[in-house]
Design goal:
The structure is a homodimer.
Chain A lengths: L1 E6 L3 H12 L4 E7 L2 H9 L5 E5 L5 H13 L4 E5 L5 H10 L3 E3 L5 H12 L4 E2 L1 H7 L4 H6 L13 H11 L4 H8 L3 H15 L4 H10 L6
Parallel strand pairs in A: 1-2, 1-3, 3-4, 4-5, 5-6
Helix pairs in contact in A: 8-10, 9-10
The structure holds a DNA duplex.
Chain lengths: ~220, ~220
Amino acid sequence: MIDIAIFDEHKLVLDGLSVLLSGISDIRIILSCDNRSVLTEKLKSMQIHVLILNMHDISVRNLNLIVQLNISSPKLKILIVSVIDSEEIVLKTIKAGAKGFLGKDSDRNSLLEAIYTLRNGHDYYSKSITHLLLNRYISSLKADDVNQNTDMTSLSSRQIEILKLWGESYTNQEIAERFFISVRTVESHKNHIMQKLNLKSTVDMVKYAIKNNIIEI
Amino acid sequence: MIDIAIFDEHKLVLDGLSVLLSGISDIRIILSCDNRSVLTEKLKSMQIHVLILNMHDISVRNLNLIVQLNISSPKLKILIVSVIDSEEIVLKTIKAGAKGFLGKDSDRNSLLEAIYTLRNGHDYYSKSITHLLLNRYISSLKADDVNQNTDMTSLSSRQIEILKLWGESYTNQEIAERFFISVRTVESHKNHIMQKLNLKSTVDMVKYAIKNNIIEI
DNA sequence: TTTTCCCTTACGTGAAACACGTAATTGCAT
DNA sequence: ATGCAATTACGTGTTTCACGTAAGGGAAAA
């Protein structure tokens, strides 16, 4: 018997995924959840084998969720379901500690296959993902420390504050006034951000901030 | 009997949604599809009452899909399912011709309710959405021409070309060289873009370009 | 047909932002 | 204690932005 938890921000999709698994005799859905903090809380007191996590967007929040769950529930295997399947993003979830990834080519059978595979202690990536990762060394990635930089922790809080305001179209002058610092300092912070993240232009910086949910589109 | 088509780019979610509707006696799922062009083609030769469209992102592509389906199949009612529920986005889908919107607070019952409501010729918006739209005049919006500007057509092709390169972190100088024009002209184009779209900063311009799929994140 | 409107091209000028380097102070961690 | 990163800030030169002006071309409307 495999005990499953499912998380999806969209109730409808959550219900859909639940129903897909409801007929299987050796799979038991223990928890079906659309709230992040409820999920974290409940998982602490439960012995779940596999968590199915539908990620609508790859944000720092979501990646951190994976990292934290891996710490608080080391036995839990996390299976990512997502339409997003760029190489970068798959790698990030794996680094964060996910044990499987189902891209948008996956169907119900892949889902079941993935659950059994994860339960048996192995990893599962759907075909399109495996193809993506062919030239990468997944194992070497996984050998790294989970807490290693995946861009998540690399910006300081001050840098994020400034990036946030700038991402809301504040001018350097306005940011400087807001924080009672010099315009030159604001420039410095931005320079440091770009150096640190190896960004080539401010356009890249906007993209980075959006990708990491620091600013909203 | 209500004939339904379901579209979702993610097979797994598609299957989930299908299963949610499979037990209902007066609902018949005619088409279950994860490919945009297949969907467009098949809908032409079918008499579908309600199309359930799961939008993972609100792009020009997706909005145009709605517009086009409304033209090619005027009787078809389009029901949007999406985790994205910002006011702007809901308004855009309504402008494009969607007849219903299920936000992430919706469950199976809302889905059924929405389908019946749409079949009866009325619109359906889930609670969170209705709340969003309280102060807006949905009806007046809908009275407008579907082809009215939703920002999609307002930029000239030259302006888009320049926006694209700039969105890939090209400098004005590089863009100028690429097109054999002066740097000042590139600046002019950007000025005109910002004036036309009433953007306050380049950050806004990046966001605009991303929202409208002119540049990739 | 002439007028009107938008697109594309381009410049002038002053302000703001960027690139790159340097550097002092603070605070945390090894 | 010593090192490393964060925060603050400036110098200097280049690039981009903001706003105005403007000429030439083409398409559509009057």
